[in-house]
Known about the structure:
By secondary structure, the chain is α+β, with helices and mostly antiparallel strands. The chain is about 20% helix and about 30% strand.
Amino acid sequence: MTDIDFRIGSGRALPARLLSGSLDDDSAELTIEVGPEQWSTVDMNMLFHTEWGDRHDGEIEGAGDVRLALRLDSSLRDQLDPLVGAGGVTEAVAGVDFGHALRSTEAWYALIVTEAVPLPPALADKGELRSGFTTIWNDQQGQ
Length: 143
């Protein structure tokens, strides 16, 4: 897990944690996590292309950490490719300057947004249950 600041259009920083990343022939993806305060900023400013009309049914309470699965805008893929080394996408994005296009919230499209659902004590050690919503960008995977 790597801490990172994404750049909001106004130049402000949005702190997040990089959890994982992947790269294939067609797309680059990141999974990040933000705290409740940062989620409020994402939600209210519709960052990572989470406009109200682009969200499917579901909601985020925002009481705990919120996980976002993101896909890089395909027009920026050429900027990422030469940066990816042994550390993969997460290291490449974490390694660029704050002003780089890969650090902009506009460069990434939220696919799936979830938060952990509290489980009863008897089930707490069985795993994790997540709830949230998907976006139209998730529907367009592989198209």
